[in-house]
């Protein structure tokens, strides 16, 4: 049986890099000088008040009636619910669940965050509790 023997070279010569290493961006900015972690938040687009208002139609899923209104893109879903309740049942304090494009919307979301075009339709729905 033959055994191969590998001999390691006694002197290892490091390779020279032809391209210099880039300097890190975080060490150049004074805000990041003493930080260990950083997070970036993506912003799709800024909401401007000069944008045209959204024509909103709310369809009541219980009785089929529609309510139309014009709201700014900075208006929240909570404000939309409040106006809808004022126009359908004045003095009502009930809770309304709304869906837009087949998805339920949260109260804190603005119409600009929902990426709505010039017109939008919301539908009321009831949450079923039970098992």
Describe it for me?
This protein is mostly beta strands. The chain has a domain at 54-125: Roll (Ubiquitin-like (UB roll)). 9% of the residues lie in helices and 19% in strands. It has 1 helix and 5 strands. It has one helix at 77-88, and strands at 54-59, 66-71, 97-100, 103-104, 119-125. A 5-stranded mixed beta sheet has the order 2-1-5-3-4, with helices on one face. The chain is elongated.
Main attributes?
Ubiquitin-like domain-containing protein; Ubiquitin-like (UB roll); 131 residues; single chain; mainly beta; Ubiquitin-like_dom; Ubiquitin-like_domsf; 1 helix; 19% strand; Rad60/SUMO-like_dom
Mean pLDDT: 79
State the shape.
elongated
Query: Helical element count?
Result: 1
Helix content: under 10%
Number of strands: 5
**Which topology of the domain at 54-125 does CATH recognise?**
Ubiquitin-like (UB roll)
Determine and state the CATH class of the domain at 54-125: Alpha Beta
CATH architectural type of the domain at 54-125: Roll
Q: Name the beta content range.
A: 15-25%
As residue ranges, the low-confidence spans are none
Name the structural class.
mainly beta
Strand order of the largest sheet: 2-1-5-3-4
SSE arrangement:
Blueprint: E1 54-59, E2 66-71, H1 77-88, E3 97-100, E4 103-104, E5 119-125
Parallel strand pairs: 1-5
Antiparallel strand pairs: 1-2, 3-4, 3-5
Short synopsis of the structure:
By secondary structure, the protein is mainly beta. The protein is built from 1 helix and 5 strands; from the N terminus they run E-E-H-E-E-E.
């Amino acid at each position: 049986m033959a055994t191969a023997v590998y001999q390691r070279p006694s002197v290892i010569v490091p390779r020279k890099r032809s391209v210099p290493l880039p300097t890190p961006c975080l060490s150049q900015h004074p805000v990041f000088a003493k930080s260990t972690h950083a997070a970036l938040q993506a912003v799709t687009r800024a909401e401007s008040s000069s944008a045209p208002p959204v024509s909103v139609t709310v369809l009541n899923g219980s009785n089929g009636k529609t309510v139309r209104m014009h709201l700014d893109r900075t208006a929240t879903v909570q404000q939309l619910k409040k106006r809808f309740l004022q126009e359908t049942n004045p003095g009502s304090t009930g809770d309304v669940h709304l869906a837009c494009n087949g998805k339920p919307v949260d109260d804190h979301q603005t119409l600009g965050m929902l990426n709505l075009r010039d017109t939008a339709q919301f539908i009321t729905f009831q949450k079923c509790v039970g098992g």
